């Protein structure tokens, strides 16, 4: 609840260097677009045989992408936690 209030606070919006990013990716329009893309991808994946080389390759790519995404967010979280340790 506090986060929403903070994001809607005019002063916070004015000072937040990420405000345009939040407005782009935090809105209903992007959420609807992402959902539609997810459904499209799921439909396409249903056409790939689970025992095929293509499926194995897709699994490998997904695992690597997931590890990279996790590492990206972990780096940001660790940075915040390290900054708090300095306080």
Kindly describe this structure.
With about 90 residues, this protein is an all-alpha fold. It has helices at about 1-10, 10-15, 20-25, 30-45, 55-85. The radius of gyration is 19 Å and the shape is flat. The model has no long low-confidence stretch (mean pLDDT about 85).
Describe this structure in a few short sentences.
By secondary structure, the chain is mainly α. Helix content is 83%, strand content 0%.
What would the keywords be for this entry?
87 residues; mainly alpha; 2 domains; 83% helix; 0% strand; flat
Number of helices: 5
SSE order, as H and E?
HHHHH
Percent in helix: over 70%
Largest sheet: none
Spatial gap, N to C terminus: 25 Å
Q: Please mark out the parts with pLDDT under 50 across 5 or more consecutive residues, or reply none.
A: none
Secondary structure class reads: mainly alpha
Strand content: under 5%
- Rg, alpha carbons: 19 Å
* Apparent shape: flat
- Average pLDDT confidence is 86
Q: How many domains would you count in the coordinates?
A: 2
Number of strands: 0
Topology, element by element:
Elements: H1 2-8, H2 10-15, H3 19-25, H4 28-45, H5 53-86
């Amino acid at each position: 609840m506090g986060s929403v209030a903070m994001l809607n606070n005019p002063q916070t919006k004015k000072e937040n260097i990420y405000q345009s990013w939040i407005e782009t990716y935090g809105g209903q329009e992007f959420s609807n677009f992402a959902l539609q893309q997810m459904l499209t991808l799921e439909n396409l994946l249903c056409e790939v045989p689970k025992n095929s080389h293509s499926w194995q390759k897709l699994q490998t790519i997904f695992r690597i992408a997931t590890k990279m995404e996790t590492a990206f967010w972990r780096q940001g979280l660790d940075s915040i936690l390290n900054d708090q340790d300095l306080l």
